[in-house]
Amino acid sequence: MSVGEGADARAAAAVAVAAVLGEGRTLEAALAALPPGRLAPEQRAQAQALAYGTVRWLPRLQRVGAKLVQRRWEDHSPRLQALLLLGLYQLEYAQVPPHAAVSTTVEAAKLVGEGRAAGLVNACLRRFQREREALLAHADRSLAGRTAHPQWFVDAFVRDWPAQAAAMLDADNAHPPLVLRANARRISTAALAERLAAAGHATRPVPFAPRALVMEKPVDVRRLPEFVEGLCSVQDAAAQLAVPLLACEPGHRVLDACAAPGGKACHLLEETPELAELVALDVDPARAARIRENLDRLGLAATVTVGDALADDWWDGRPFDRILLDAPCSGTGVIRRHPDIKLLRRPADVGPLAERQRRLLAALWPKLAPGGRLVYATCSVLKAENADVVADFLRDTPGAAEVPESARLAAPLSPALPGRSGREAGAGPGFALLPGAADTDGFYYACLTRPT
Ligand SMILES: C[S@@+](CC[C@H](N)C(=O)[O-])C[C@H]1O[C@@H](n2cnc3c(N)ncnc32)[C@H](O)[C@@H]1O
To answer: Does residue 57 belong to any structural domain of this protein?
Structure first.
């Protein structure tokens, strides 16, 4: 690799990280917006890995960076901040020889219009090499610094999960595994594992998610014939629990009220082919299009509807036997997959999100048939969005009751989750899978029913 090639990938990574810092864009959107064609596929992959790593560790690296510059950290442009953080990330975490980390980052500064700061970047990174231990010791004085989270996340996790918070914070920084879900209509989990093994891809099963296979090494799924042919999908094992909790039966009419991109809707159709109908609703037309893409790839059919679950205009008045409310949430359970959540989410977001979740639950409840079941799910680990929402709903809604199913499903998980099920005393209804427990994303589920 010449400095020039390496610098191009660094420049692209710095532009993407700066867009997260300065414009509040998601990292995925920032990387997708990089000019097509300027980078070879390997450089693009390298830029992505560097940008994700930098953002994952950013709250720790920023504490170091702030000690290296003379002016206030915030007074530097997002691009310069991004370059310094990217250089520090490589020196501390990436498998990059230190001299290459420094020289390519200095070169990248010139490529992204920060040429005047190239000397500053060089000086800061070299000083970090000399004073690494003291600088990191400073950053690591707090749990927030050591685990690279904003302080408010640490406070919220410690408040909600005092015994588990440290493991959760560490797990957020782990590289997430690629988990596949076998399409039960087309292939058994064992047969899929065999096909993948024959192609050189080792996998391991997940005891509590019978369709799940964890890939031992990451791959680009778009290049996996098994994915392209619709034999499998990408879905974390925790997300694969929604379908057993819904316990659909042949002939049921089912609503997936927040369905895009269709992960759980497709899983449901794979497991229960004889449903009367699955209505896959989403308010966002572009995201609803992704439900159709996934249905097509997997050879499945559903009634895909663009509409607002808070309104009634999309509903024909016929009740549903099952409703899945996979509610929009803070995403605090999936930080390991989306580390930019650390930077983009604000404490003030949680109240309005919980309010929307309450309104969604109240709006959908009258659409549930007597004796039917509603599964409330989020990929948040905050009680304000989970047990608090459900507990208030149960208190305020005559006849609404929790189905013991969620507790039963949580029980077999408990050995794998010592002390980590949300079923502890005082934890409220439903159950939580916490990051750091069983190598899953963080998720919350509650099963509710109304009397016949
Ligand atoms: C957590 S994602 C759903 C993931 C999906 N269930 C899956 O498994 O692939 C939440 C979805 O809710 C949708 N959404 C947000 N507010 C909504 C509303 N008022 N009505 C319908 N959909 C909504 C968002 O567009 C987003 O696609």
So the answer is: yes
pTM of the model: 0.94
User: Measured in angstroms, how far is the CA atom of residue 4 from the centroid of ligand 1?
Assistant: 42
Number of domains in the chain: 3
Beta strands at 179-182 and 232-234: parallel, antiparallel or unpaired? antiparallel
| Closest ligand 1 atom to 324 CA | 6
Judgement on whether residues 114 and 75 belong to the same structural domain of the protein: yes
- Pocket test of ligand 1: the residue of 256, 267, 268, 282 to mutate, having most ligand atoms within 8 Å of its CB, is 282
Residues 345 and 430 in one domain: yes
Asked if residue 87 and residue 18 are part of one domain, the reply reads yes
Residue 434 domain boundaries: 239-449
Tell me the C-alpha distance between 21 and 38, whole Å: 23
Residues 418, 342 share a domain: yes
CA distance 285 to 307: 8
Q: Which residues line ligand 1 (CB under 6 A)?
A: 258-264, 281-284, 287, 308-310, 326, 328
Residue-by-residue pLDDT tens, the chain, 452 positions: 555 569 999 999 999 999 999 999 999 999 999 988 788 989 999 999 999 999 999 999 999 999 999 999 999 999 999 999 999 999 999 989 999 999 999 999 999 999 999 999 999 999 999 999 999 999 999 999 999 999 999 999 999 999 999 999 999 999 999 999 999 999 999 999 999 999 999 999 998 899 999 999 999 999 999 999 999 999 999 999 999 999 999 999 999 999 999 999 999 999 998 999 999 999 999 999 999 999 999 999 999 999 999 999 999 999 999 999 999 999 999 999 999 999 999 999 999 999 999 999 999 999 999 999 999 999 999 999 999 999 999 999 999 999 876 666 665 554 444 334 444 444 678 989 999 888 999 999 999 999 88
Angle between helices 285-298 and 263-271 (to 10 degrees): 30
Q: End of a domain among 195, 214, 234?
A: 234
